[in-house]
Design goal:
two-stranded antiparallel ribbon, eight-stranded mixed beta sheet, alpha/beta
Length: about 300
């Protein structure tokens, strides 16, 4: 068993605009966390975070959904947030994180859920949706994609990957803040650093960019192509929301991705960068609730 990092609870005390307590369960020897907010009998919305964020990213999106009667469930993937963090970069793979995601929806017995995916939550959440369709009824896609080994990556992403590769003690809050249109407060940035007490605890945050397949025979590429083909054939109602100012995954990427999966063209979220939930979270939550009450229902 690889070494595990677990952030002390006091690092999460008094986080701004985050009143919810985590729910813990065990998966393959790890203590993993999630939020479960809203009416227990409400329609389920699963919020899949990416890298290097955690369920804190969804704190502005959740209240409008709960106010509309939805139950919001937001996992912290292994290696992130309040979940345990294996410290070995080699522990992390697309297969392993997808297996963890599938166990999550199975253990919680989620049925007919809406999956809201962002960043690395896209490859993981969308794969879970296609491989375990009994749990999902609708998709909401935010600034993400599928990694097939054929995708074109921006210069901004290439610079980010190179930085991650050479930086063992990743400055998590700096990366989040640098990809927001409106600079977060110092308190919010500290909340993104809270899960990581030391460099070793940041293995997952480092591993995900480095394991993104850049060639068709890289690990994970074939699985990404399979999910892409399944999505293109899927009849799931889908809403695509995309930031107007994302330098990592520009709007043109969102337009191409929506076309590839036969989804409606992205609705543009104004005044937002890659972490659009930070910039326009309430707008996003309100739009998802309205969509679910209408076309997505």
């Amino acid at each position: 068993m690889t070494d595990i990092s677990r952030a002390p609870d006091d690092r999460f005390a008094g986080l701004p605009d985050f009143p919810w307590e985590p729910v813990y369960r065990e998966w393959e020897g790890l203590r993993v966390a999630h939020l479960d907010v809203g009416p227990a009998d409400g329609p389920v919305v699963v919020l899949w975070h990416g890298e290097p964020t955690w369920s804190y990213l969804w704190r502005k999106v959740i209240p409008p959904l709960v106010a509309a009667g939805y139950r919001c469930v937001a996992p912290d993937l292994p290696g992130f947030g309040r979940s345990d963090k294996p410290t070995d970069l080699g522990w992390y793979s697309y297969d392993r994180l997808s297996t963890a995601a599938a166990a999550f929806v199975r253990d919680l017995d989620l049925v007919d859920a809406t999956y809201v995916v962002h960043d690395w939550g896209g490859p993981i959440g969308l794969r879970t949706a296609m491989e375990h369709p009994q749990h999902v009824g609708r998709l909401v896609i935010l600034d993400t994609g599928l990694f097939t080994g054929e995708q074109r990556m921006t210069d901004a992403w290439a610079a980010f990957r190179a930085f991650v590769e050479r930086t063992e003690d990743l400055p998590v809050s700096m990366l989040v803040g640098g990809a927001c249109a409106t600079p977060p407060t110092a308190e919010v940035l500290a909340a993104y650093d809270a899960p990581y007490p030391d460099a070793a605890s940041k293995a997952g945050a480092r591993a995900l960019p480095l394991m993104l397949p850049r060639a068709v025979d890289d690990p994970g590429a074939a699985e990404g192509r399979t999910v892409l083909a399944a999505l293109a054939d899927s009849a799931l109602p889908t809403l695509v929301l995309w930031a107007d100012g994302d330098p990592i995954l520009p709007l043109t990427v969102g337009q191409r991705f929506a076309e590839r999966i036969n989804a409606p063209a992205p609705e543009v979220v104004a005044g937002a960068s890659h972490f659009l939930q930070e910039d326009q979270g309430a707008v996003i939550g309100t739009r998802i609730a309205a969509w679910l009450d209408g076309a997505g229902a």
